C-alpha cells in the first residue's frame, strides 16, 4: 500500500533537529548578553591644566639675597678687685684611724645592740606564734594550734549562744561580724561588732566576753596584740 504523503515533503521530519539548533542559538545569545561588558571612557591625562595662563613660567628668575652679618659685640674686660688679706687660719691635723697593735679592743658586753623593730600588732594569719586557746597547748606545731584555735572558737560560740527574745519576736536573723584582739597579757579587748540589729550585736558581744584568758601571741619571742575576726550567724529555725 503506498503512503498518502510524500516523506520528502513532511514538515515534521526534522523538527527535533531544528528545535535543538534554535535552543542552542538562544542560549548562546543569552550567554553573550550576560557576559557583555562596557567601560566608561577615561582620559589617560588630566586636561584641567591645559589653560596656558595656569601653567608655571618656563624659567624662574634667579634672585640673589645678601645677608648682613651681625656686628661683633665688644666685651669689656672684667674688673679685677684685690681683696684684703684674710685672717690666718690654723689647719687641723687629720690623724689616721687605722688600727695598730696599741689599739684597745672593746669588750663584747660594752657593745650596745639595737632593739628589734617588732610591731605592736600582728595579724593572726602572719604571726609566728599564734595565741593559744585553752586546751590547744599540746598541739604539735603552729599550724595545728591555729586550727585548734578556730575549732575551739566555734565550739564556744555554739555552746554560749542564746537567741535574743526581741529578735525572735521581730523575726530578725543575719550575720554579726565580730573583731576582737588578744592582748599582750592574753585577755580579750578592742571588741568591734557590726550586724543587722542592736539586739544581735549585743548577744554577740556577750559571747565574746565569755571567752577564757588565752596564752598571748608572740612575734620573735615578744608578746604582741593579735586581732581576730569571726562571724556569728543568727538563724531562726
Automatic annotation (TrEMBL):
<dbReference type="InterPro" id="IPR006260">
    <property type="entry name" value="TonB/TolA_C"/>
</dbReference>
<dbReference type="InterPro" id="IPR051045">
    <property type="entry name" value="TonB-dependent_transducer"/>
</dbReference>
<keyword id="KW-0813">Transport</keyword>
<keyword id="KW-0653">Protein transport</keyword>
<feature type="domain" description="TonB C-terminal">
    <location>
        <begin position="148"/>
        <end position="237"/>
    </location>
</feature>
<dbReference type="GO" id="GO:0098797">
    <property type="term" value="C:plasma membrane protein complex"/>
</dbReference>
<dbReference type="GO" id="GO:0031992">
    <property type="term" value="F:energy transducer activity"/>
</dbReference>
<dbReference type="GO" id="GO:0015031">
    <property type="term" value="P:protein transport"/>
</dbReference>
<keyword id="KW-1003">Cell membrane</keyword>
<comment type="similarity">
    <text>Belongs to the TonB family.</text>
</comment>
<dbReference type="InterPro" id="IPR037682">
    <property type="entry name" value="TonB_C"/>
</dbReference>
<keyword id="KW-0472">Membrane</keyword>
<keyword id="KW-0997">Cell inner membrane</keyword>
<dbReference type="GO" id="GO:0055085">
    <property type="term" value="P:transmembrane transport"/>
</dbReference>
<keyword id="KW-0812">Transmembrane</keyword>
<feature type="transmembrane region" description="Helical">
    <location>
        <begin position="17"/>
        <end position="34"/>
    </location>
</feature>
<keyword id="KW-1133">Transmembrane helix</keyword>
<dbReference type="GO" id="GO:0030288">
    <property type="term" value="C:outer membrane-bounded periplasmic space"/>
</dbReference>
<protein>
    <submittedName>
        <fullName>TonB family protein</fullName>
    </submittedName>
</protein>
<dbReference type="InterPro" id="IPR003538">
    <property type="entry name" value="TonB"/>
</dbReference>
<dbReference type="Pfam" id="PF03544">
    <property type="entry name" value="TonB_C"/>
</dbReference>
<dbReference type="GO" id="GO:0015891">
    <property type="term" value="P:siderophore transport"/>
</dbReference>
Amino acid at each position: 500500500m503506498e503512503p498518502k504523503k510524500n516523506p520528502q515533503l513532511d514538515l515534521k521530519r526534522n523538527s527535533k533537529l531544528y528545535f535543538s539548533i534554535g535552543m542552542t542559538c538562544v542560549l548562546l545569545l543569552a550567554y553573550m548578553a550576560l557576559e557583555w561588558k562596557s567601560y566608561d571612557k577615561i582620559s589617560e591625562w588630566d586636561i584641567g591644566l591645559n589653560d596656558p595662563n595656569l601653567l608655571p613660567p618656563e624659567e624662574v628668575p634667579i634672585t640673589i639675597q645678601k645677608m648682613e652679618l651681625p656686628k661683633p659685640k665688644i666685651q669689656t674686660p672684667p674688673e679685677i678687685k684685690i681683696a684684703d688679706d684674710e685672717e690666718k687660719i690654723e689647719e687641723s691635723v687629720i690623724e689616721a684611724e687605722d688600727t695598730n697593735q696599741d689599739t684597745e679592743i672593746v669588750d663584747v658586753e660594752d657593745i650596745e645592740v639595737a632593739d628589734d623593730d617588732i610591731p605592736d600588732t600582728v595579724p593572726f594569719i602572719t604571726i609566728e606564734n599564734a595565741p593559744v586557746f585553752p586546751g590547744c597547748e599540746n598541739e604539735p606545731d603552729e599550724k595545728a594550734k591555729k586550727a585548734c584555735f578556730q575549732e575551739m572558737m566555734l565550739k564556744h560560740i555554739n555552746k554560749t549562744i542564746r537567741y535574743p527574745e526581741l529578735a525572735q519576736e521581730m523575726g530578725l536573723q543575719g550575720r554579726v561580724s565580730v573583731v576582737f584582739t588578744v592582748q599582750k597579757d592574753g585577755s580579750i579587748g578592742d571588741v568591734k561588732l557590726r550586724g543587722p540589729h542592736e539586739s544581735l550585736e549585743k548577744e554577740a558581744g556577750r559571747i565574746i566576753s565569755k571567752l577564757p584568758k588565752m596564752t598571748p601571741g608572740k612575734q620573735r619571742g615578744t608578746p604582741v596584740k593579735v586581732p581576730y575576726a569571726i562571724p556569728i550567724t543568727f538563724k531562726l529555725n
